[in-house]
């Protein structure tokens, strides 16, 4: 027999299933896939279970038979083969992970990717712990179920800020033992594995056109023992799943209901879609004939059960009903199954459709080719092989570790990091530790310095987590560097230069400073976490005068401008004041001296008899004997809120603001808008009050 290098001329694939092995030899003619020959042989015993080879010799025997029959048909010895690992052999783990993040730094792709890597590594660790034989696993994909930021659900946390980021994922793994078993069988029959993929990937390649893969579509391969689910989204496979119910459950119900052996029940089940009438012999040899509709009515609960579990798993892994569902595999032909799935997913019936090889574009099938949905996966293996001229495994180096990876998808640096066991936390730049201090019972956070991001190099060039990798690549990761811890001194919290000048003497506006309850004078001390600082701050002129025990004053100057007690202080301002009795000496005098003082005092006034108005002609009274014990000023009357009141001045001139010393008016509690009028016009606090003036002060 001649030998042919079939890698570039013809394609040979083996679809190794639980019940049978199908082999296909094909070639491309004018961009059309021509199936030259196909052979299907059934296993004689239970040599496979859930897609995994349990009896290597038993599988080898049937695989060799298929290979030899194909070689006989084409007249050449086959040396290279394409294969696929069963979707039902995939292991799925649902887990979560969370990380603390800097509350003032927006979430970026680096943080999200690091969190995903940590969750996948956690899922892989859970899988290894569950496996008593400590098998190795290849990660073939994962799906994000949801994110939470500070305990609130969020669709996309990119750009948001918070302190705790949470992720829940479903990660899918392929046991290495499954791959090793397939390789061993191929080696036993003299075949080199040129390409390997996953059955769900192959099925999607054949059954789901490229322009549909952008949609959210579920592909369900319903076999004998399991139903394998693959879900597409945004052009890629987003999730894998498997149910433990499939065609065998329906076969078993047929066998129990009509007393049939398993093979007879299987034949009846497969014929339900081909004939309206069924005839069979039960285990007692009694022949039974009945309509397919009657049989379907009887076994409908088992059909609905299979449909329910498929629908539940689709929603579980997709988060919702998909846009459409494609059914392949032998058991997908069971009548009513597609309608039940549509009902469970609340989809129109036409959106749950069976896919057969007749629906595959640019396909020329041979006469011996199986025409139903069970032929979709092997053709998909051929199509995947033609598009992927590369090895199925690659080996890369991550820092000092060698990592072997299964190429079920386009691999990136992040995929290599998962298997290398690199701690994803080391990818995130961390701030230094923060300090929390309390200033007048208000919490203040002093943050540490920002850290330096991790540097990632691919073959010596700067790269990132999403950079594509190939066989033999070298990845170097310099971990992120944490920033310096927060450090602060008391004089950085309290400004020693925040002073005002009272009669040209500097006065600090920050007074009575305590640190953790202890009075402190030197402000150059370093603060520690949870330190408590208390102080009093002088906001206004009144605060300043009260603190320094300055009593009754006559006038206030702030930066040489007449001001009030309520005037705010500004750092660096100059405050001056005058007192009515300042610089005058008070001492006891006898009655004669008092009379003489009065005479001298009144000589400085003129009296207008008509108006009873006494006009002070001097600001101050000076005489040889100094200040009197009692200076007398003439009373006068004003009209206050339509009521005539008499004022008895205690100084030579009363200003509008002094009116509040003579009236009962509560200014501490606002009761609307304050109306202030002086002789019918808006009042000026510093304007002098005179006899006969009209004053209005009230809330409106």
TrEMBL record:
It comes from the Bacteria. The keyword Cell division applies. Keywords: Cell cycle, Cell division. This is Cell division protein FtsA. Pfam families: FtsA. GO terms for biological process: cell division. Residues 11-207 form the SHS2 domain. PANTHER family: CELL DIVISION PROTEIN FTSA-RELATED (PTHR32432), ETHANOLAMINE UTILIZATION PROTEIN EUTJ (PTHR32432:SF3).
């Amino acid at each position: 027999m001649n030998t042919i290098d079939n890698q570039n001329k013809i394609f040979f694939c083996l679809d190794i299933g639980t019940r049978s092995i199908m082999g296909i030899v094909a070639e491309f003619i004018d961009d059309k896939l021509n199936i030259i020959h196909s052979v299907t042989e059934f296993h004689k015993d239970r040599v496979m279970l859930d897609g995994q080879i349990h009896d290597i010799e038993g599988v080898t025997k049937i695989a060799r038979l298929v290979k030899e029959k194909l070689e006989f048909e084409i007249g050449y010895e086959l040396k290279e083969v394409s294969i696929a690992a069963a979707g039902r052999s995939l292991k799925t783990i649902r887990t979560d992970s969370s990380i603390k993040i800097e509350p003032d730094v927006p979430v970026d792709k680096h943080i999200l990717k690091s969190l995903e890597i940590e969750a996948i590594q956690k899922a892989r660790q859970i899988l290894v712990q569950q496996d008593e034989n400590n098998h190795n696993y290849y990660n073939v994909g994962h799906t994000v179920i949801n994110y939470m930021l500070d305990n609130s659900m969020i669709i996309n946390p990119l750009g948001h800020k918070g302190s705790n980021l949470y992720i829940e994922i479903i990660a899918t793994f392929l046991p290495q033992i499954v791959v090793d078993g397939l390789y061993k069988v191929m080696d036993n029959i003299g075949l080199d594995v040129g390409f390997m993929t996953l059955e769900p990937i192959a099925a999607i390649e054949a059954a789901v056109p490229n322009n549909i893969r952008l949609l959210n579509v579920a592909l369900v391969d319903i076999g004998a023992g399991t139903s394998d689910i693959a879900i597409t989204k945004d052009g890629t496979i987003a999730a894998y799943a498997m149910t433990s119910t499939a065609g065998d459950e329906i076969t078993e119900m047929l066998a129990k209901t009509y007393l049939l052996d398993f093979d007879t029940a299987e034949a009846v089940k497969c014929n339900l879609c081909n004939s309206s009438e069924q005839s069979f012999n039960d285990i007692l040899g009694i022949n039974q004939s009945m309509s397919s509709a009657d049989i379907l009515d009887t076994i409908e609960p088992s059909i609905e059960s299979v449909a329910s579990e498929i629908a539940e798993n689709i929603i579980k892994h997709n988060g919702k009903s998909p846009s459409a569902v494609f059914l392949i595999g032998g058991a997908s032909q069971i009548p009513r199954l597609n309608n039940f799935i549509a009902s469970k997913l609340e989809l129109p019936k036409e959106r749950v459709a069976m896919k057969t090889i007749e629906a595959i574009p640019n396909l020329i099938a041979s006469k011996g080719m199986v025409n139903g949905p069970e032929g979709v996966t092997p053709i998909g293996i051929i199509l995947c092989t033609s598009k992927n001229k590369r090895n199925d495994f690659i080996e890369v180096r991550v820092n000092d570790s060698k990592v072997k990876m299964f190429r079920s998808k386009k691999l990136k640096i992040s995929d290599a990091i998962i298997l290398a066991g690199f701690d994803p936390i080391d990818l995130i730049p961390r701030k230094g530790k923060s300090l929390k201090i309390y200033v007048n019972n208000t919490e203040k956070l002093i943050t540490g310095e920002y850290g330096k991001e991790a540097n990632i190099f691919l073959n010596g060039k700067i790269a990132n987590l999403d950079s594509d990798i190939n066989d033999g690549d070298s990845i170097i990761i310099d971990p992120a560097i944490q920033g310096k811890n927060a450090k602060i001194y008391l004089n950085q919290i309290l400004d020693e230069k925040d002073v005002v000048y009272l009669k040209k003497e500097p006065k600090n506006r920050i007074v009575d400073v305590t640190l953790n309850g202890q009075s402190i004078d030197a402000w150059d001390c370093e603060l520690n976490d949870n330190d408590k600082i208390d102080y009093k701050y002088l906001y206004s002129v009144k605060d300043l005068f009260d603190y320094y025990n300055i009593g009754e004053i006559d006038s206030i100057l702030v930066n040489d401008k007449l001001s009030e007690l309520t005037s705010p202080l500004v750092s660096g301002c100059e405050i001056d004041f005058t007192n009515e009795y300042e610089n005058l000496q008070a001492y006891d005098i006898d009655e004669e001296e008092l009379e003489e003082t009065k005479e001298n005092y009144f000589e400085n006034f003129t009296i207008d008899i008509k108006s009873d108005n006494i006009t002070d002609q001097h600001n101050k009274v000076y005489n040889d004997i100094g200040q009197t014990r009692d200076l007398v000023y003439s009373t006068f009357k004003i009209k206050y809120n339509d009521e005539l009141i008499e004022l008895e001045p205690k100084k030579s001139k009363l200003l509008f603001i002094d009116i509040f010393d003579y009236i009962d008016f509560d200014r501490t509690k606002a009761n609307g808008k304050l109306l202030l009028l002086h002789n019918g016009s808006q009042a000026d606090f510093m304007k002098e009050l005179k006899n006969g003036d009209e004053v209005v002060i009230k809330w409106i």
